[in-house]
Amino acid sequence: MTRAPLLREADRATRLCPGPDWAGGDVEEGGDDHLVLIPADPEPSAVLRITRRADVAALLPSRVELLSSLAPQLPWQTPVPLSEIDPGDTDADGDAVVLAFVPGAAHPPHHGDPAAFRVILDAVAAVTDQAWQGRVVTPYTSTPRWDAHSRETVLAVLPSGHRNAAESVWATLEQFEEEPVVGLVHGDLAGHNMHWHGERLVGVIDWDHAAAWDPAINLAHLALWHGLAVIEAAAPDPGFAARASVWVGHHALFRLRRAAETVAAGDALPRWDRLLRKTLPRLEHAAAAAVRIGH
User: Fold this and answer.
1) Bridge partners (DSSP) listed for residue 203
2) What is the tens place of the pLDDT at every residue in 66-87?
3) pLDDT band at 266; cut points 50, 70, 90
């Protein structure tokens, strides 16, 4: 959802970054954490991000520091800060910062070049620890852990023939926690967070949920957008591929969990059958990988 900018939003952007046509731009309101003002310039150079909640504002300094430290180490563009953080005149204003605009568009889903994805994975893995440590969240910050109640919630809606697969994925996730592999994880490395020109990656945006977690999650997110077939072809080794597949299963189960909670809250859930058609093959794929890890 977009709307025209309020006068105070356009004035604020102009004060922080004179030049772009902020007043003629659009404000994107779809994000939970931020409003984003994009100027009306034919080739925008900047965007204004405004936090929507106090907890998001508290994280903004570390997120801005992360973007600054990542940019010199990645072979494609990131939304580097172009202004200082502006706290606004009142709490209702939110905190704001101007970031560099990253051009390009999302890659069409369900296909892609595994060799290009391998380059992306290697580039993220090559970022030095000093660039992200202390500036990213810990595991399960944005995705809650699985407890007995959440598992039962999923099992109650899962077709009986797929419950063993779910149990296998959960057991393997517990193994991951006991023997953690830790690296830089983008948090949602797929879809509209990756800006392409054709088959060339221009830049990656939205590092807000970057975490010190299993780097195989990066490949799992790529597979969720581009297709499961990219996992084996893009992974640096079979173990990495198997972990990525299990994380795909985690995502599938989490989608079912959220859907079940939505129904329990009394809200309508459109196309439950469609959700199952999408998630169940991913779950079975993950369970097969869990067996390989167990061996």
Assistant:
1) 77, 195
2) 999 999 999 999 999 999 999 9
3) confident
Residues in a beta bridge with 235: none
Three-state SS for the chain is CEECCCHHHHHHHHHHCCCCCCCCCEEECCCCCEEEEECCCCCCCEEEEEECCHHHHHHHHHHHHHHHHHHHHCCCECCCECCCCECCCCHHHCCEEEEECCCCECCCCCCCCHHHHHHHHHHHHHCCHHHHCCCCECCCCCCCCCCHHHHHHHHHHCCHHHHHHHHHHHHHHHHHHHCCCCEEECCCCCHHHEEEECCEEEEECCCCCCEEECCHHHHHHHHHHHCCCHHHHHCCCHHHHHHHHHHHHHHHHHHHHHHHHHHHCCCCCCCHHHHHHHHHHHHHHHHHHHHHHHC
pTM above 0.90, yes or no: yes
Structural domains present in the chain: 2-100 (3.30.200.20), 114-294 (3.90.1200.10)
Residue 98 near residue 197 (C-beta atoms within 8 A): no
Q: Which residues contact 118 (CB under 8 A, 6 or more apart)?
A: 233, 234, 235, 236
Identify the bridge partners of residue 47 per DSSP, sorted by sequence position: 99
Parallel, antiparallel or unpaired: strands 2-3 and 200-204? unpaired
